[in-house]
Amino acid sequence: MSAQRSAPPRVLSIQSHVVHGCVGNRAATLPLQLLGVETDVLNTVQYSNHVGYGSFAGEKLSGEQVWALLQGMHTNGLLAPDRLLTGYMGSAEAVRAVVKALPLLREARPDFQYWCDPVLGDNGRLYVPPALVDTYREEVVPYAHALLPNQFEAELLSGVTIRTVEDAQRACAALHRRNVNLVMITSAEMVATPPDVSSEAAPASPANPSVASAAASSPASTKPPLTVLLSQRPHASLWRRVYVVQVPQLPEHFAGTGDLLAALLLGWNLRPGVAPHEALHNALAGVRAVLHKTVAAAPPPTVGVGEGYGSGTRPLGLRLLDSIDEIRKPDVSAIEAPTRLDQPLRAVLFDMDGTLTLPEQLDFERMRVAAGLPDGAPIFEAIGALPTEAARASAWAAIEAIELEAYSSIQLQPGLAELLGGLRARGVRIGIATRNTAKAVPLLLKAAGLAEDTFHPVLSRDSGFPDKPHPAIAHAACDVWGLPAAACLFVGDSKDDVRCGRAAGMLTCFLQPPDAPEDALPPEADFGISALDELTCKLDDAVL
């Protein structure tokens, strides 16, 4: 008897439907199935044709109807996909019906993932009610495993204006901070893109949200390439993987390419052993093949401006049946491979008090009294305002005595030695950037049983840098290491720590109490931890 075959992965695809054409679920279902994915289909709208025709007939499902269908599946034990893919929803009520079902989906499969193509608009123009943007931003983004916006949608959801690849990375980082694991900006028009290539997007429509005449090329095309950027940071990781691809465009316009790209990326991601950037490469190659097949089968243009197939008013419909072999086995040599932009972790800069040590061991009120400072006054500012150098030196000496007394019996953060050992074993450099006196560092090393050369550099208030959050101290550490800030991580327990690191261009980690509320993470922090050993278990992914 042969061994029982494992069940193929299953996707629930909730998108639009047209009677004629290949957009929404008509563009997503067959490609998913060709990649071996069982696909359940829920149609949010039923239209006669895509809106690129200029007129259409049909209707949308209400939120109640969407919920009733999902509830019916749940009642019969059918609501258990591995992945949920959503596209054009049509209303806030329909979106909320899907969000309402997420607990049921996660209950059915602990490894369930929600992939969201937030169909909102393109090229600066919305084709949904403005209130729906807020619905996605506040009610969908925090629950999405993957988000697949175009440039305009990424700007709306992240609050970051995208003009360069660096801007696109910042937009992705903002979405990662809201718990999105994977972000693909499906098409972007960059002012400057490496290597000095600009790009431009085609006209928008709900049937063609990411315009992907991208992933195609033609000698006749005068359109510059588009930029596709993929950024992944799993929950278990402290480091992003960022890839970019420049994709040429055909001169024609197409309908459904964004839906096709999202489906192919998801389908390839469900293949065992396929990394996200490899899935992106396969997906773009598949789109390219479909578009070339579509152009080859297109009727000749109609006489008249803006009236023919492939014009701005009537995009070409995708020829999926002609492209079955190419979808299954795309020719990746026909399109450039994604270029990795992120740099592996090469150095960590730690704050000291409250980060390497347990918090609240320094008596700041006692310091103020000893230094003759007003109650509650910011210590650095108050000492800086003293009238003479002698007065300032005397105040710092009084504070230093209290610091050294505390550090003589300092209690360390649990897991400190293991974390530092793990970093050094992986060749990651470690330094300190602290407001404390440098004389406290040997006491810290003694308490931890660490060698004198464990930290390099050790930058303290004695080093003469402006106080955090000014980035000078972080820049100085990068200079000592000879590393770009993008390869470095700043770990601290204060907002000024992460602001300092962010201003210097580092990735930032905020150490917060275990009972801190969810909204306690500063916006300048890329992620938060409640114990140092949370970093230890994430190192392997960061240094690769």
Structure explained in plain terms:
β4, α3 and β5 (113-116) form a beta-alpha-beta unit. The protein has 18 helices and 20 strands. Mean pLDDT is 88; it is low at 193-220 and 303-312. Helices cover 35% and strands 17% of the residues. The protein is of the alpha/beta class. The chain has two domains: 15-298 and 307-335, UDP-N-acetylmuramoyl-L-alanine:D-glutamate ligase, CATH 3.40.1190; 347-361 and 410-543, Rossmann fold (3-Layer(aba) Sandwich). The strands form four sheets. It has a ten-stranded mixed β-sheet with strand order 3-2-1-4-5-8-9-10-11-14, sandwiched between helices.
Q: Outline the low-pLDDT stretches.
A: 193-220, 303-312
Task: Please estimate the helix content.
Answer: 25-40%
Global morphology: elongated
Distance between the termini: 43 Å
CATH arch. level architecture of the largest domain = 3-Layer(aba) Sandwich
Compute the average pLDDT.
88
Helix and strand content put the structural class at alpha/beta
> Strand tally, please?
20
Described by strand count, sense and barrel closure, the largest sheet is: 10 strands, mixed
What's the alpha carbon Rg, rounded to whole Å? Answer: 27 Å
How many structural domains does the protein architecture include? 2
CATH superfamily of the largest domain: Ribokinase
Strand order of the largest sheet: 3-2-1-4-5-8-9-10-11-14
Proportion of residues in extended strands: 15-25%
How many alpha or pi helices? 18
The CATH C-level name of the largest domain is: Alpha Beta
